[in-house]
Amino acid sequence: MVLKKRIVLWGLASLALACVVAAGGVVYFHTYSPDRGRYPVRGIDVSHHQGQIDWRRVAADDVAFAIIKATEGGDHVDDAFAGNLRAARAAGLAVGAYHFFTFCRSGADQARNFISVVPHDQPLLPPVVDIEFGGNCPQRPSPGQLNAELEAFLGPVEAAFGKPAIVYLTDEAEAAYAGQIAARPLWLRSLLKEPDRRDWIYWQYNDRGRVDGVEGDVDLNVLHGGPEKLAALLAPTP
Question: What predicted TM-score, i.e. pTM, was given to this entire model?
Answer without folding.
Answer: 0.86
